[in-house]
Amino acid sequence: MPGRRLRNGAVFLAAFATVTAGTTGCGQGSSGPDDGATSARPPTAQSPSAAPSPGAPSSGAPTTQAPQRFAAEVKKVTAADLKSSWRKGCPVGPSGLRMIEMTYWGMDGRPHAGGQLVVNAKAADDLVKVFRKLYDQRYPIRKMEPVDRYGSDDWKSIEADNTSAFNCRNATGGSNWSQHAYGLAVDINPCENPYVTSSGYVDHKDCVKFRDRKRRDPGVIHAGDKTVKAFASIGWGWGGEWSGTKDYQHFSSTGR
């Protein structure tokens, strides 16, 4: 959306493991039923050179790729962690926020450890369930870092195609708090899913092509797809369903 911003952070490449034919892949990209955050930390990233190419045989035998399992940990945050995204007078304090550190599926078709999303404490476990579903569905995400990495500059975060949540700011074009100021909104792949005004204007030039919602590029969200349904499963609405202006990147607890 015009002037909205996301964030960049360190992502770590996790290698694919191989197993011999006839052996079931470890987890098959899923850590089990949607039961909230896990205490396990994402596995340590390995060198890309250690990962075989998809379908590459081992000792002459056919192999099956087994991507690492989804992992997430919910952590408390302090004002020091939110140097530019939070200030006194914001509608929620650091004690009411949480950092989700999680694995996410990348645009390169590989799992990445180290994704970070700052959200409202009350929504953290539900959002872990949502992102587990997205991971299991291999929905690709470009980046996932707090907006503080961009000085809480929404514009820069969007330019980086960064997926983010908490940012203490007003709603675009308004004087009321955005749902992001409560940690109750998430913007996903904001370039592939731009904010489009009722006149069809997109503020970020590299994202204009995604105004065409018939596109099927990786990360593009469509009405009724698995991404929309994943958020709907916790009662969150999608900005792509707004009348007039569309905010295709935006999911929130109120639908606004």
Please tell me about this protein's structure.
The structure is a single chain. With 256 residues, the chain is α+β, with helices and mostly antiparallel strands. Helices cover 10% and strands 20% of the residues. The protein is built from 3 helices and 13 strands. The strands form 5 sheets. A 4-stranded antiparallel β-sheet has the order 1-6-5-4, covered by helices on one side. A 3-stranded antiparallel β-sheet has the order 9-13-11, covered by helices on one side. A two-stranded antiparallel sheet has the order 2-3. The longest helix has 13 residues. The protein is globular and about 40 Å long. The N terminus is likely disordered.
SSE inventory with pairings:
Elements: E1 12-13, E2 17-20, E3 63-66, E4 72-76, E5 97-105, E6 111-120, H1 124-136, E7 143-144, H2 154-159, E8 162-163, E9 185-187, E10 195-196, H3 226-232, E11 237-238, E12 246-247, E13 250-252
Parallel strand pairs: 7-8
Antiparallel strand pairs: 1-6, 2-3, 4-5, 5-6, 9-13, 10-12, 11-13
Helix pairs in contact: 1-3
